[in-house]
Prior knowledge:
Blueprint: H1 2-64, H2 69-97, E1 106-109, H3 110-125, E2 129-133, E3 139-142, H4 144-160, E4 166-173, E5 176-183, H5 205-210, H6 217-227, E6 231-237, E7 241-249
Parallel strand pairs: 2-4
Antiparallel strand pairs: 1-3, 4-5, 5-7, 6-7
Helix pairs in contact: 1-2, 3-4, 4-6
Bound molecules: adenosine-5'-diphosphate.
Residues 157-158, 161, 183, 185-186, 188, 196, 201-204, 208, 213-219, 242 line the site of adenosine-5'-diphosphate.
GO molecular function, one term: phosphorelay sensor kinase activity
EC number: 2.7.13.3
Membrane topology: Multi-pass membrane protein
Amino acid sequence: xxxxxxxxxxxxxxxxxxxxxxxxxxxxxxxxxxxxxxxxxxxxxxxxxxxxxxxxxxxxxxxxxxxxxxxxxxxxxxxxxxxxxxxxxxxxxxxxxxxxxxxxxxxxxxxxxxxxxxxxxxxxxxxxxxxxxxxxxxxxxxxxxxxxxxxxxxxxxxxxxxxxxxxxxxxxxxxxxxxxxxxxxxxxxxxxxxxxxxxxxxxxxxxxxxxxxxxxxxxxxxxxxxxxxxxxxxxxxxxxxxxxxxxxxxxxxxxxxx
Length: 258
Ligand code: ADP
């Protein structure tokens, strides 16, 4: 008799556990589905705006452009910059959609990668970028293209959201490599500091649209850092500036290394 009750109780417990797990699974699926829906609707909205702008300029040109050189110049400029925005957005969407299993990780040297990005930015923006480091070379295990992307996103943001010089640094400490980008710009309010890593989140939509932003950069950057067993965080004071920091594990030297 005792055995029977015990058995029944156990199966009841098991059923209950299954129900809990099942409900959790359903909630998670719903959550994923809603996030997917939000993502698609945000992405289409972001694409619709530049398409609409290009279209209205095309119509304006068709109506009044033929003998209006000023309108012609203005339209070409707008169409060109809106096309750039679409191109960037599509590249970012593709980078988010990339199948992680196809991303190859290999030995990557960071100092050279960073110096290369800094040179490119100095030329493109004509701004002062300081670089401090405590090592001449440092290797991590990762994907060079993705690591370059994160290096690039943080420098570009620092340049976009500040006017003075910016400081890039690379330090090794306790088996980690710490890459950080400091600016003396607008800074980010405490309540926005976690949200800026969400997809499509922008603190000041009007202003960051003006700078060509879609709000995807930092979400991509954080995802890349995490895919490399690392972390990406921000430390910022409103009105004083921000420091974005990525920490990655240094790659251990293999037996074939000298
Ligand atoms: P965006 O394409 O808009 O720059 P990001 O994901 O890179 O998208 O950044 C999200 C938002 O975080 C930006 O719109 C901006 O409001 C804020 N932000 C990012 N970097 C900085 C920075 N260095 N200083 C101040 N605000 C920043």
